Amino acid sequence: MTPSTQRLSARSMAFVLAGGRGSRLKELTDRRAKPAVYFGGKTRIVDFALSNALNSGIRKMAIATQYKAHSLIRHCQRGWSFFRAERNEYLDILPASQQMSETDWYRGTADAVSQNIAIIDSYDIEYIVILAGDHIYKMDYEVMLQEHVDSGADVTVGCLTVPREEASAFGVMAVDENLRITSFLEKPKDPPGMPGDDTQTLASMGIYVFKWSLLRDLLVGDSEDSNSSHDFGNDIIPELVKNGKAQAHRFTDSCVRHAEDAPAYWRDVGTIDAFWKANIDLTNFTPDLDLWDKNWPIWTYSEIVPPAKFIHDEEDRRGHAISSLVAGGCIISGTEIRESLLFTKVRTSSYASLERSVVLPRAIINRKARLKNCVIDSGVEIPAGLVIGEDPEADAKHFRVSDGGVTLITKSMVDAWSRAQ
């Protein structure tokens, strides 16, 4: 097969920007970058962008890391080490390593790519797909690549269709009737409507497709511009909107649905409330995000653990879970669990209860603890008898209570609570 007859994805690479902390997740990202945060019972957030690329046929990938990257790097080494260089496939981890300067780390999203130009050149690719590593969605990038080539655009920007009144929180596109971008506005007070529907606005997903030779030249010029913030959204994309051809791609045209009438699912789980809700939504009878779809699986690192175990069958001491997801390695000992999601190796004890709570790996829930509307960080041990979720004012004295009433519990918070007793 000649290069011209290969699928576009075979001539492309995915460059995943995964260096951000995600400060709106508060203490949940004290030990890990946002893309490394756990999601959905088994996976990490970054697995969605990587799985989309793999399922789309892209087998050359790179992940740029920066903030507290060890957890993310370890996860990728353990869960994504199946690529074989002899088959011309790669997944490279690119920590900020001052490759172009002895003083500069990654100065922005565009700079994260600029500092790795020599490495990308070695991949011998024609197109590059720039991805954010911190969103939950399923998308076929081959569709977007084909649209990019067919339109003759210099850049194609992946876009969500959002209600106009909500669009002020995004970078948004004004487009013509052919979806050519006429202006790019960062969090405008009065977002533009779409042609034919003034109630909707196109918002950037942080997904960009370029021909590599073009982007390479743009990055070299941008890196030498002292007035640039070296960012795709602030510098590269606006420049192409003004002096090139920038095209919008609607997510609804390439999203992967588990049923024809299913909604186009995309979530930014960047706050405690959004993270909690997206996880709890998976306990619905028919969740909008289908993690059971074998046609578009979400790949991840899977520990070898025994099945979940439920023990005790006495009044008020019955190990059971209702409308919940429970991962392998969990032992539910005499605990009532409702509408909750438990990750790998969680242990719970008799007479405890969990309701609408997200429990990250290896947490321990001791006897008679009652937890409602909580996010419990990995490795946390909940003291016996601790009650959370019934008195927000009392909870806020020692734990993080979100605007939506969700309580985040970390090890340091539990330690402070214990010292105060």
From TrEMBL:
InterPro entries: ADP-Glc_PPase, ADP_Glu_pyroP_CS, GlgC_bac, GlmU/GlgC-like_hexapep, NTP_transferase_dom, Nucleotide-diphossugar_trans, Trimer_LpxA-like_sf. GO terms for molecular function: glucose-1-phosphate adenylyltransferase activity. It catalyses: alpha-D-glucose 1-phosphate + ATP + H(+) = ADP-alpha-D-glucose + diphosphate. SUPFAM superfamilies: Nucleotide-diphospho-sugar transferases, Trimeric LpxA-like enzymes. Residues 14-283 form the Nucleotidyl transferase domain. Keywords: ATP-binding, Carbohydrate metabolism, Glycogen biosynthesis, Glycogen metabolism, Nucleotide-binding, Nucleotidyltransferase, Transferase. Pfam families: Hexapep_GlmU, NTP_transferase. Alpha-D-glucose 1-phosphate binds at Y106, G171, E186, K187, S204. The record marks Q66, W105 as: Could play a key role in the communication between the regulatory and the substrate sites. Pathway: Glycan biosynthesis; glycogen biosynthesis. Residues 306-409 form the Glucose-1-phosphate adenylyltransferase/Bifunctional protein GlmU-like C-terminal hexapeptide domain. Its EC number is 2.7.7.27. It is an enzyme of class 2 (transferase). Involved in the biosynthesis of ADP-glucose, a building block required for the elongation reactions to produce glycogen. Catalyzes the reaction between ATP and alpha-D-glucose 1-phosphate (G1P) to produce pyrophosphate and ADP-Glc. Belongs to the bacterial/plant glucose-1-phosphate adenylyltransferase family. Homotetramer. This is Glucose-1-phosphate adenylyltransferase.
